[in-house]
Amino acid sequence: MHDIVIRDALIVDGTGAPPFAGDVAIDGDRLTQVGGKAGPGRREVAAGGRLVTPGWVDIHTHYDGQATWDPVLAPSSVHGVTTLIFGNCGVGFAPARQRDHQALIDLMEGVEEVPGVVFTEGLTWNWESFEEYLDALAAMKRTVDIGTQLAHHPLRVFVMGDRAIRREAATAEDIAAMERLAVEAMRAGAFGITTSRTDQHMTRAGEQVPGRYSDTEELLGLARALKAVGRGALGLNADFEDVDAEFAWMTAFARVSGRPLYFLHLDRAHDPGRLPRIIAGIRAARAEGLHLTGQVAGRPAGLLLGLSTDLNPFILRESFTDLASLPLEERLARLRDPAMRARILAEEASPRLLKLLPPLSRFIATRWEGMYVLGDPPDYEPTADRSVAAMAARAGVTPQEYCYDYLAGGDGGRMLFFPLVNYGAGDHAVLREMLTDPHTVFGLSDGGAHCGSICDGAIPTFMLTHWVRDRARGPKLPLEFVVKRMTSETADFMGLADRGRLAPGLKADLNLIDLAGLRAWHPEMIADLPAGGRRLIQRVEGYGMTMTSGVPIFENGEDTGARPGVLLRAGR
Prior knowledge:
With 572 residues, this protein is an alpha/beta fold. Strands 1, 2, 3, 4, 5, 18, 23, 24 and 25 form a nine-stranded mixed β-sheet that branches. Strands 9-10-11-12-13-17 form a six-stranded parallel β-sheet. Helix content is 32%, strand content 21%. It folds into two domains: 61-300 and 423-454 and 480-494, TIM Barrel; 303-421, no CATH class. Helix 4 (152-160) crosses helix 6 (172-188), helix 8 packs parallel to helix 9 (274-287) and helix 15 (388-395) packs across helix 16 (399-407). It is globular and about 70 Å long.
């Protein structure tokens, strides 16, 4: 008698093998049979030919703060993720002295776009060292398992104080201290170390992040820490303006550490030769036996623009921002008033507001040909004729008129999609190239971050609906390939040997999915974070069950109230 038996499933086991029919049996927190005809179960679930897959293993999230107060960790958990890793992009909250709390909040707010007041209200700060932070995380039961990496920026601030914030060079003593603390964090259970070397990451005040210009000697101190522990990887984001220079220090790091190094793998439309140079650099390093890997996303990195999001095309106009604090219904009524509409459309960008937005946001707010009607169901591979500029031309109005009327229409929840990277050619061809590259690992959902502009925690669902089932503008991807990318490959990359596959003896983390009925709804803004903080979510239907450690955590989209998830400590 098994605890749970899922009958007549189409099993996609996470290994890349073709799907096969059969039953799945679970006893306790382990899989005991995968395929064939299982014996009776205390609970039996009729799959009726629906998919059973491993739970998704998401290795690029930013739940560093949210994980200390929220046991559900949506939207990732709602979209089938059963293991998630945070501490990415060099930002986090440990180690942390009390005097530096606000600086780390400002850093996270600037880089990952979570309102600082959310952390001021939500974080208990009952830790100083990285190990104490892990202990605080371990005290809460959750829907899913979590793990974290050691973030370089708070480590640097912990050791160097204000000198780190001013981006001064680390001394030999500083580097030795960071190396020692990194070893301690890795032995306490960190899954790796992350940093950031991009101009796109800034503090709330517009300053570069503490480790932006860390020299090679400082980074090699982190390499020695990984070598001393013998596991873990370095993850980073870099601009690659000088590809050769970046690969010079990265290959040096890989040689010293003997460990993998991965970086965000992004195409840039303004430099079409950049991606081939990076791919060539990865292959050269691999030929030398160095494990350099690009981390790739499933859809273009881009922003959502709407009346409730952080950015929209009218945010630089004083009359529009004057309405921002009104309740949505009242705001819509005012926006639909012909006099107000004429007034806002006649205004130019305010010099006062221009000072508050970084250059990239100013550019986005006026580039009509780069904005696409998102639609419902959302379209993340839009054709050029769905741009605001093209739709306005067909309607015989100006782009700003079309955009204004579109956003002010409906219930006020309409949005535009503005892809920033991996969409230079106007389709997903480059994404498919990167997804099928054997020298890449899947990631970049950014769950828990960019609360007012992105909802990419839903990407695991998108991978199935778009790449496997619906894509019309180019070749699709095989179901078993996509499942493998999001399960065994990501689990293996993080050293999680007990999950990511459906096989007897492994952890019973799985999804029961109606592929034909799977749908991610239009993003919406809710206000359920501490201090009334807002975030974008994307509801989903089609997951019949998501299970962590043999316990159903969601059934037919509903939270069961079960909290089997635990903190994972690497190496233990």
